[in-house]
């Protein structure tokens, strides 16, 4: 099937975080129903004024971020699709999910009113950005951090669980209609999953004429990405229970044991033995991965209590 919607695909990086495995992010089920309907942003369309922006990877992830922003703050925010689509290098062939997200994560976002979609042609829409946009976008990063994790696209139960934590960006074969859709074709489009009826269907938020639609429960997405929007002053994740085994997922991969606001570091076999003993063998769910920034934010001591 010809790619008409702006999605480029590639294999995932083996170092990318995957939800449900070692990541520094908790799978916090902040929305137990997994229904984000009350937080949906305004409808926006990538194919108006006679041309397609080929920016589905941008529209769909910004929809997710806008939903999370409203959920976290109670206030609506509309970020500029045009600015992110341009700086992330969107072409007439489209863009990659991870590339667009990482540009947002590293360089920030600006609001729609600062750079609205008022262009009447492709060339005008993708003209060079004003230098001051970069400064403005960094203000977002002063307050918020963005993270991403992949979700197993072939596991509906994994997707259903992840949906309780965040709205999801997913790739599909584009389809429209009033019923429950199950298109058979190439994954050529990126959308937002904002709700699910278990065993029945997924609720989709799109950016073409039909912005709300349903895909069958057993439809297999091409890729599923779970974004996290984290307030900066909560960025270093501190809700760690005592006697949790920590692993540094950057650098040398060290292990440590969390206790009373400190990381106990020592020989790995001693740390693991202490971890098992202190938990009386009940270690299920008592592990956590940390980034280097998070690891370094806590004081370190050895098993004798000496500073390290």
Can you characterise this structure?
The structure is a single chain. Strands 5-11-6-8-9-10-7 form a 7-stranded mixed sheet. Strands 15-12-13-14-16 form a 5-stranded mixed sheet. A two-stranded parallel sheet has the order 1-4. The chain has 2 domains: 7-233, Cysteine proteinases (Cathepsin B, Chain A, Alpha-Beta Complex); 236-301, OB fold (Dihydrolipoamide Acetyltransferase, E2P). The protein is built from 8 helices and 16 strands. It is globular. The chain is α/β, with parallel strands linked by helices and 308 residues long. The mean pLDDT is 91.
Uncertain regions spanning at least 5 consecutive residues: none
Q: Please identify the structural class as seen in this structure.
A: alpha/beta
What is the overall number of helices?
Answer: 8
User: What overall form do the CA principal axes indicate?
Assistant: globular
Query: By CATH's scheme, which homologous superfamily of the largest domain applies?
Result: Cysteine proteinases
The CATH class assignment of the largest domain is Alpha Beta
Largest sheet: 7 strands, mixed
**What is the averaged pLDDT score?**
91
Compute the gyration radius: what is it? 21 Å
How many distinct folded domains? Answer: 2
Q: What pattern of helices and strands is seen along the backbone?
A: EEEHHEHHHEHEEEEEEEEEHEHE
Helices and strands, with pairings:
Layout: E1 7-8, E2 47-48, E3 51-52, H1 56-73, H2 81-87, E4 95-96, H3 97-107, H4 122-125, H5 131-143, E5 144-151, H6 156-162, E6 168-172, E7 180-181, E8 189-197, E9 201-205, E10 212-216, E11 224-231, E12 244-248, E13 255-259, E14 262-264, H7 268-278, E15 287-290, H8 292-296, E16 300-301
């Amino acid at each position: 099937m010809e790619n008409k919607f702006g999605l480029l695909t590639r294999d995932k990086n083996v170092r990318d975080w995957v939800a449900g495995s070692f990541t520094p992010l908790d799978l916090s089920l902040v929305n137990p129903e997994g229904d984000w309907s009350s937080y949906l942003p305004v409808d926006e369309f990538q194919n108006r004024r006679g041309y397609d922006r080929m920016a589905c990877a941008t529209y769909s992830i910004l929809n997710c971020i806008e939903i999370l922003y409203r959920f976290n703050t109670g206030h609506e925010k509309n970020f500029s699709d045009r600015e992110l689509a341009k700086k992330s290098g969107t072409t007439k062939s489209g863009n990659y999910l991870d590339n667009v997200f990482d540009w947002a994560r590293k360089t920030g976002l600006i609001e729609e009113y600062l750079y609205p979609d008022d262009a009447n042609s492709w060339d005008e829409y993708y003209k060079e950005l004003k230098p001051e946009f970069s400064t403005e976008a960094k203000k977002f990063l002063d307050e918020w951090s963005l993270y991403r994790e992949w979700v197993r696209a072939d596991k509906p139960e994994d997707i259903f669980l992840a949906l309780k934590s965040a709205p999801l960006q997913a790739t599909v074969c584009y389809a429209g209609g009033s019923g429950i859709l199950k298109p058979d074709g190439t994954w050529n489009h990126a959308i937002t999953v904002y709700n699910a009826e278990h065993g029945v269907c997924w609720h989709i938020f799109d950016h073409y004429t039909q912005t709300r639609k349903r895909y069958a429960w057993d439809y297999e997405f091409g890729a599923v990405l779970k974004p996290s929007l984290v307030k900066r002053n909560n960025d270093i994740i501190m809700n760690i229970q005592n006697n949790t085994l920590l692993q540094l997922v950057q650098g040398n991969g060290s292990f440590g044991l969390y206790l009373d606001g400190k990381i106990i570091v020592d020989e790995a076999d001693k740390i693991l033995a202490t971890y098992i003993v202190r938990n009386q063998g009940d270690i299920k769910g008592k592990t956590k991965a940390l980034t280097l920034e998070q690891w370094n934010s806590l004081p370190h001591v050895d098993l004798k209590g000496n500073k390290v």
